[in-house]
Amino acid sequence: MIEAQQATLKEKLKEVFGYNQFRGKQELIMKNILDKKNTFVIMPTGAGKSLCYQLPAISQEGTAIVVSPLIALMKNQVDTLNALGVNARFLNSTLSKTEVNRVKKEVLNGDLKLLYVAPESLTKEENVAFLQKAHISFAAIDEAHCISEWGHDFRPEYRKIKAILQQIADIPVIALTATATPKVQLDIQKNLNMEKANVFKSSFNRDNLFYEVRPKNQAKKQLIRFLNDRKGKSGIIYCLSRKKVEEIAEFLNVNGFNAAPYHAGLDGNMRMKNQDDFLNEDVDVIVATIAFGMGIDKPDVRFVVHYDTPKSVEGYYQETGRAGRDGLVGDCLMFYSYNDILKLEKFNKDKPVTEKENAKLLLEEMSSYAESSVCRRKQLLHYFGETYHEPCGKCDNCTHPKEKFQAKEEMIIALKTVKLTGERFGINHLVNVIRGSKDQYVTSYSHDQLEVHGVGSEKEPEFWKSVIRQTMLNGYLDKDIENIGVLKMNEAGEEFLKDPKDIEFTINHIYTDVGDEDQ
Ligand code: ADP
Ligand code: ZN
To answer: Which ligand 1 atom minimizes the distance to the CA of 13?
Structure first.
């Protein structure tokens, strides 16, 4: 890239946005785009992803296409850019014919720097034809995890984007997401045909957030106590159903808290009013379904409560991420009940098989997270492919640690079992082998002949599952990203087998539900 462009970036950063410095890898990312290379950005919410494509769009000739999944998000960004004096527009189903024509004219004149489009609009033939005539600088795909069925927010239209872009022009692509587990990341890269793209990933650690999981016993009472300690502070309480949202909002108001409901069943005006009241601090607590939050930028949310157990760890992490965006403390409390998991499973029963299995796996990961006694931060970061060395000191499992044991021998057994069974199996089969099961899978693969078969028969299945999970969390086993559920050896694991060291694991604590969980 020419030096002049680099200087321009820095100048424009100050001139247009009023910022003195780039954050994290922003500048590297922008240079990559200006160098016309494909770019993949994985950064947590609030890290400053939008600027990564906005600034390069402003700094060069032509119009950048920005694919964005939500009309509200698009409008928000376009309004902000217009207020900064940047010529940006959106193209989606809310525009009239006259408005569409005006936007098109601006693109063809070369006046427009950024054109936001919904995937549904991008794939329309007439739009493709018009974009072919325009001078397009590059394409940005925001919320790129929508491409993946393994993400928490799958949008089938997203899968068509690449083919459409190829028809439009030979332009570099920048894909951005805040939620890429290694599996989702691979899926995005494959779908966009950008396996060779430069990947910029920053840590997902949010060190001002405190994570806590409590059994859902007498949850209403617990909630009142939790809120009493945070009177007058802003917070979000997530519930699974609209009915529960209404119920909890009313319950809180009756108990003297200033709360309002938010869900897709409320009429538009009411929803808007409750959201505005929350943003303007006329309401302290918003009780909401997960419909609330995407694109909401309230910096001083002091707590996020999951009253019901969430559907996936990824979704949960996104939602907790709305706390403490100003960098000050944020408390994330989740109530866990296995009953909730079963309820969620029931919701999925009519889905196609693969979707159902995927949803089930996400739920299993959720309950494994909730029931575990390992540092929460370590588990969450592991989910995003990061190894974190506990204790973090800011989670329930760190501040109230559970009992530990010397796990060297157990870990050797776990690793050997993965290796000897050929790195082709998931946790249940591995545990069956270790505990000496003679079920048809174990026998048909002759795994009852292995030296590890039955060596752990005196311990419960949960104990061994926990050993295997902790082996993985500590970075000695990998999840196979091609085959969901399958565990594989890695270098650290092989090394450990050659030269085993002392290592402590926590004794897993399992929550049992007590009758009146919801009272
Ligand atoms: P993301 O899309 O990653 O969730 P945003 O793009 O919405 O994050 O950015 C979050 C906030 O950080 C915005 O208010 C944005 O203006 C601000 N921001 C981004 N980059 C910088 C920077 N270099 N210096 C200061 N503030 C920044
Ligand atoms: Zn911790």
So the answer is: 23
